[in-house]
Amino acid sequence: MTELDEFRSQVRRVLENEVPAALRGRATDPKAHVWGGRRMAFALPESRAWLEVAAARGWTAPTWPREYGGGGLSGEEAKVLLSEIGRLALPPPLVGFGLTMIGPTLLQFGSERLRREHLPKITSGQIRWCQGYSEPNAGSDLAAVQTSAVRDGDHFVVNGQKIWTSYGDLSDWMFMIVRTDPGAKKKQAGITFLLVDFATPGIEVRPIRLISGASPFCETFFSDARVPVENVVGELNAGWTVAKALLGHERAMIANVMGSGGRRDTASRWDPAEERLAALAKQYVGQAGGRVADPVLRDRIAQLSMDTLCFQLTVQRAADGAAAGHRPGAETSMFKLYGTELNQRRQELMLAIRGPQSLGWESAQGEPGDGFSADELQQTRDWLRSRGNTIEGGTSEVQLNVLAKQVLGLPD
Amino acid sequence: MRLALTDDQAILAKTAAAFAAERSPLSRLRALRDPRDSLGYSKDLWSQMAGLGWAAIPFAEEHGGAGLGLAEVVLVTEALGRCLAPEPFLSSVMLAGRALARAGTDAQRAAHLAPIIAGDAVLALALDERGARHDRRITTRAETTAAGGLKLTGVKANVLDGFGADAFVVAVRTSGEPGDAQGITLARVGSRAPGVRVVRQHRVDGRNAALVELTGVEVPASEVVGPVGQGGEVLDEVLDAATVALSGEMVGGMVEALERTLAYLRERVQFGVAIGTFQALKHRAARVFVEIELARSAVMAAARAIDEGSEHRRALVSAAKARASDAYVHAANEAVQMHGGIGMTDEHDIGLFMKRARVAEMTFGDAAYHRDRFATACAF
Lengths: 412, 380
Prior knowledge:
The complex is a heterodimer. By secondary structure, chain A is of the alpha+beta class.
């Protein structure tokens, strides 16, 4: 038995004996996802035991060094761990931007002091992080951030506003980019990457209500918030490099998610019976001879279903290519672009299928039976929310720019 | 199913692309088109392609083939598609040849496959009929003769590479009504048989297509291909594979149209800058790229689904053809638009891709046809 085989059976023993069986099969169930933080909540009580088992072994961050609370595993061992977790379809023991974004960035750019202070609290789930990048006047043009940090002794005094802070109201710390040199020739040159404790006086977080209703997004306001100088990651005024590297980790995470989706082997396992659209259409519009009665709607369903299949096949092809040694690159922009548009088209088609039944906004308080089902009400919200898919995380237009430049080699 | 090339497949793709690019520049296509060459392709070059083993790819080793599959076929057709090579791969190999290989008797295979694989004989499948879409109505009649053979009467149109073909595999109706799935029979007919008249059709892409008139053409029982009345099932399988092969050709065409357009965007200067700096054009080009990537994935998956006998192969074939049709037409239309005025001239090559895109789109059923077939396969 090789060492890797031994590791696998060891992992299997732990997962089968020490992790509550109730969590099996809930890999993608949002209720089974633990985000950590000072106000940590467990929607499923079993999740606590799984987090404790995992954190004790460093499995919340398998490849991080042990001295920072990671598992110190090799890439091969981490793959084994993930495949065993996948075998039981267990949820990840812990999720969040600490593990996927700021953690890897601190490993790359953070001082020893910052790593020792923050990484163990990320892997144990003690501290929940949020991202402070976008501002009202810095969306696609991120380097235009204006939130200022002015040196005053051992502190920076931070003033300004961040927006689209996902889960800002549930987070304990923020990693953010601030302007420390307003006079720099290039706007990218005057930016510093800073870590801020939300317990600091002068910080206010307000949830944002979207066109679809309540959302995880927040606005964060800074009024003379004093942040210790040692919380700078990387060099002063060199934060743009750190910020971009972090975006790279974010993309790698997305590509990873896409890749694992692709490894499902869409082509062999694809099952059109999973396609809910046709079943819904038969229910709402009727059927004729077993077919969706409206031929125009049927054609639209076929088109969308086919495009979804082709998209999934393309994700699989990227994953299969990566397994064969091809490095994934800017094609993640293609996935972002097409995947989000596909979701919007799906939502639009759902509206067409459900007709006026897709227009309900909310149930009258305590009065069920007002004509809209819970599914229909959710549909309204999903449709409205989907309009943001092509804006958040880099607009479709930004993705097209990336493709044109990095893949097609068109000039600036 | 893995959507990646094996080492052997990568080598085949590379050699096919290199051969096609070197031996088949677009100037060759013009040299065949402009004097209205009746054949529309080069017999000599087709022999050379066969000499490389391309025509042997989809045939079993016991039939003298290479025993490879659609995953390899689409690599060759993609190379042909990039340079719009008009040689009779689809017609002689994927249609008539594979129909004979799949349904023919041992004697028929022994007699007819070797010349096809060697590139010495070109056979064509006479399927679609004049005025009809790709809908398998089949009105060409066949009466049974006293000798147990068939006597055929009807008109076939858009017969790919039918002009100058040595023989045809003809789909005729031996029973039932036009439109019935059953009652179709395949028969091999020599092009010089009495009652056969072949008229060259000149279509927009300049390739060889023909009208084939059959007037009381007698076919001996020994030349009936497969069981009488069950030709429909043979056609299903043969056309699915040919559709994937054509979709592979279409991927080649759209890739080439985009690459030529990108080169133009980099070199064409207006307002003092390369027009490729304009975001309006960048975004159009990037959208074409995405459509091509999706089409390629669908074609690779459909080819492998057929090779592996997947239960989803019909749906995947239709997804591939519908996608390839929409993507090629889109890529070609955008290519002409981004070339501007020069793209509208006959002198410039980019228009050749648009013409081929339209013909390919409507061959073996257009996108709407295949969306309907996909929807039926998925029970929508």
